[in-house]
Amino acid sequence: MKKIRSRAGISMAALGMVAAMSTHAAADTGSGAASAPTTPGVLATHAVETSDGRPGGRLEFRTEGDVVTVSDQQANDGHAAQGYVYEYISPTLRGDRVYTLRDNGSDGVPKIARESDGGSHNLKEDQMYWFRICLVGPEDGLSGCVWKAWGNVG
C-alpha cells in the first residue's frame, strides 16, 4: 500500500454525478471523504483537471461502460497528459495501479479505455478507485497532479 501525495495536495471529494436521464450535477462536498458507490443503474460521470492553472490535462470517468478518457488540452506545448487508475484502499491509501493512459496531444484525439477493451479496463462494479491526472514533461517529469476517488456503480 502506498500513501497518496501530489504537489497540489490530496483531494478526495467527487466532482459531480449525472443521472441517466438528467444533467443535474451534485456539488463537491469538500468533506475530505471519497464518494461511495451510488445506486446501481445510475450513470455517473466524473472529471478532474491538472492543477497547472491552464489546465493542460483532463481525465474523465463514466461509470456506464467503465469509460476513462485522458486528454491533453494544450497540444504541442511539450507536455503530455497522463492518467492513472489505482485500486482504492482508503481515503489516504491506494493499492496497485490498474492501468495508465497517456495522450501526447499531437493528434487532438484523447486516449480512451473502455470496459469492452477487456483485461484491466473492466473495472469491478460497486468498487471505489483512485484516479490521477498529471502532466508529463520531457525535463520536469510529472507535474500538476491531482487525485480523485470515485465509485464504479453497478
Describe the structure.
The chain is an all-beta fold and 154 residues long. It has a single domain, classed as Immunoglobulin-like, CATH 2.60.40. Helix content is 0%, strand content 44%. The chain contains no helices and nine strands. The protein has strands at residues 2-3, 45-49, 57-62, 67-72, 80-90, 93-103, 111-113, 127-137, 141-152. It has a five-stranded antiparallel beta sheet with strand order 1-6-5-8-9, with no helix packed on it. It has a four-stranded antiparallel beta sheet with strand order 2-3-4-7, with no helix packed on it. A hairpin with a 7-residue loop joins strand 2 (45-49) and strand 3 (57-62). The two termini are 26 Å apart.
Question: What keyword list fits this structure?
Answer:
four-stranded antiparallel β-sheet, mainly beta, Immunoglobulin-like, 0% helix, five-stranded antiparallel β-sheet, 154 residues, globular
The N- to C-terminal Cα distance equals: 26 Å
Tell me the structural class: mainly beta
Determine the strand fraction and express it as a percent band. 35-45%
CATH class: Mainly Beta
**Estimated helix fraction:** under 10%
Low-confidence stretches: 5-33
SS elements, strand count = 9
So, CATH architecture?
Sandwich
